[in-house]
Each structure stands twice: as C-alpha cells, then as structure tokens.
Write a structure and sequence with these properties.
Elements: E1 2-6, H1 13-23, E2 27-30, H2 31-41, H3 44-54, H4 61-72, E3 81-84, H5 90-102, E4 107-114, H6 117-131, H7 138-160, E5 165-169, H8 174-185
Parallel strand pairs: 1-3, 1-4, 2-3, 4-5
Length: 187
C-alpha cells in the first residue's frame, strides 16, 4: 500500500510517516532526509540544496525526481512506500504517477495534514530544542511555509479530486492525527 503525506514544514508528516512505515512494514520516503543526506555528503547536489534551502526555496524538481526514481522502481519497496512530503509540485506529481505506472503501482491513500502558521511556529520552536535541525530557523521555516502553500496548491487540487484523498486537521495532537489516519486505513 503506497501512501502520500502532505503538509507544510512542521505539520508532523515525518512523525506520521514513521508510524505508518512501521505499521505496514513499509519504507518512509522523506525527500527532506534524502536532501539532508546529500548536504552531509557535501556533494555538488548538496551544495545546491543548501543554497535553495537558505533562500527559503524548494529544491528543483529535477534533483528531487532523480533521487526518488530509484526508490520507487526498487522491487523490494514495491507497494510499501510512504511518501513524506513528496510530491511538492505538479511536475513531481506527474513524475510520480509515471514512475508508479511504469512499475505497476498506485497510491492507495493521500493524507493532507492541514496546519496553520501559528501551530507551525510553536512546533518548530519545540522541535528546534529537541533535534537542533539546521533547516529549523524560524524565518526560513516561515518562508518555506509560504512557498509550500503557494507551490503545493496545484498538487493538492490535482489529488483532492481522488476519492482516496483525505484532509486531516493537523493542529490536533499526534495521537489524534494517528487515530484519524488509522480510521481511514482500517488495517
């Protein structure tokens, strides 16, 4: 069962993706983690990613799609993918559809964790003290939030027409969000 989790930075996608990966014995596909790994490696791609992130921009679709492609086409991960924050653009969504179709897969559930800016600010401040992530600077997060809402709207419009699209109040506590997701999954 392939699942997509949407939501702005700090919405709790990672937390829910980890839970779902464990629940269905699947693989959490976090573009954020993949991008941070490239940054750690200090690769050319990593340097470009840092430049984009510091400007509050998203990384190019080309970079992200190339990182995702091998994972989607990996037969060991077939129909066990939990997409954490991907796709973020219409181009990425179309590429994902292409990758899935080419490997005889589909998305079973799409969850949008809808969260307002105030909640994001509280969560980022809390997470910053715990994880100390370099991409958790408040002004950067707020830029990323605005960019996310602007760029992802076409993707949400694209997927929201599907019967497997579910919007969840992302301001709820973690356990409440998990329970809402579980109610849809019925696994």
């Amino acid at each position: 069962m392939n699942i997509i989790l949407f939501g702005p930075p700090g919405a709790g996608k990672g937390t829910q993706a980890k839970y779902l990966a464990k629940k269905i014995n699947g693989f959490q596909i976090s573009t954020g983690d993949m991008l941070r790994n490239e940054i750690k490696k200090n690769s050319e791609i990593g340097k470009k990613i840092v430049e984009n992130m510091n400007d509050g921009k998203f990384v190019s679709d080309e970079i992200v799609n190339n990182l995702i492609k091998d994972i989607v086409l990996d037969p060991k991960k077939k129909n066990k993918l939990i997409f954490d924050g991907y796709p973020r653009s219409l181009s990425q969504a179309q590429n994902l559809d292409l990758f899935l179709n080419n490997s005889d897969q589909k998305i079973k559930y799409i969850f949008f964790l809808n969260v307002n800016k105030e909640t994001i600010i509280k969560r980022v401040e809390k997470r910053k003290n715990i994880e100390n992530r370099s991409d958790d600077k408040l002004d950067t997060i707020l830029k990323r939030y605005d960019t996310y809402m602007e760029m992802t709207k076409p993707v949400l419009d694209f997927y929201s027409k599907n019967s497997n699209f579910h919007e969840i109040d992302g301001t709820l506590e973690i356990k409440q969000i998990t329970n809402k997701i579980d109610a849809f999954l019925q696994v």
